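Need a sequence for this fold. Nothing fancy.
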């Protein structure tokens, strides 16, 4: 059943677990995410990032996401990830998405507040939820580097986060505490005390971006300290690609439909692994 981000995060809070928020820019990843959630009776967030428009446009994959969410036996939230313009967010809401993220993290604090407030006003007209972001994540959803590679310089300021939440009235906050989008070039240094402080001050569920590549212990400690939504893309997509490469190498005549199936199964297996950790 299709639910809002606010509703799904309340379920996570009650169960004291994290919800996987999987980027599903392809049909294979979308089906894999829904299947694994249903098998585990686990709520799930499926999301489409604006930067993934080159893979599939939201007009094409969005209606499939919303339809599968409505038909699912478990609560599913269809979320627009890293929306950079109000126009793009509105497109998602008109397609039936129940949650949006406005990403103003690269703007000044004042501009971020101004635009996030606009996103909240818009989302509320559609009965949808809003995730805001404060503090900047190193890298982006495409795995590209940030201009300044000093990751710690981007960590979220707790007092400013408190003010940001009060001013914008968002439902969830993406905080930067040491994770990175894409592949890790070095061991991440997660600041658990920082998440705890932000969670206590803002009293909001917090979002981890750059959810690929952490150890089970790192995920669990993050959840224990206030993370409820874990954004996950790179390692699932890599699992699909790796299985595909092996399949092509080991089989002479292959059809694309067979490759598609192999990728879907491999992603499902990968998502099972993270769901086992998040819903502990
Ligand atoms: P990863 O690509 O590191 O899994 O992060 C995904 C993400 O944060 C999308 O918003």
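Here you go.
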């Amino acid at each position: 059943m299709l639910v809002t981000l606010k509703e799904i995060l309340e379920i996570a809070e009650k169960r004291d677990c994290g919800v996987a928020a999987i980027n599903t820019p392809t049909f294979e990843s979308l089906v894999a995410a829904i299947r694994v959630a249903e098998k585990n009776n686990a709520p799930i967030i499926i999301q489409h990032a604006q930067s993934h428009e080159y893979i599939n446009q939201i007009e094409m994959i969005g209606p499939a996401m919303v339809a599968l969410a409505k038909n699912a036996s478990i609560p599913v939230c269809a979320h627009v990830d890293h929306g950079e313009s109000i126009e793009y967010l509105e497109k998602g809401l008109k397609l039936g998405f129940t949650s949006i993220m406005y990403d103003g993290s690269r703007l000044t604090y004042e501009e971020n507040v101004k635009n996030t407030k606009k996103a909240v006003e818009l989302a509320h007209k559609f009965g949808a939820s809003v995730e805001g972001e404060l503090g900047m994540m190193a890298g982006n959803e495409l795995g590209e580097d940030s201009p300044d590679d000093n990751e710690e310089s981007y960590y979220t300021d707790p007092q400013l986060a408190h003010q940001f939440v009060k001013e914008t009235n968002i439902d969830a906050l993406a905080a930067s505490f040491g994770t990175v989008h894409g592949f890790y070039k070095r061991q991440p240094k997660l600041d658990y005390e920082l998440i705890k402080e932000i969670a206590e001050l803002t009293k909001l569920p917090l979002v981890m971006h750059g959810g690929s590549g952490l150890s089970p212990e790192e995920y669990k400690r993050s959840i224990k300290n206030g993370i409820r939504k874990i954004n996950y893309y790179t390692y699932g997509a890599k699992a699909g690609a790796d299985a595909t490469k092996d399949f092509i190498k080991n089989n002479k005549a292959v059809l694309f439909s067979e490759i598609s199936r192999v990728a879907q199964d491999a992603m499902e297996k990968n998502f099972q692994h993270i769901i086992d950790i998040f819903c502990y």
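For context: The two ends are 23 Å apart (CA to CA).
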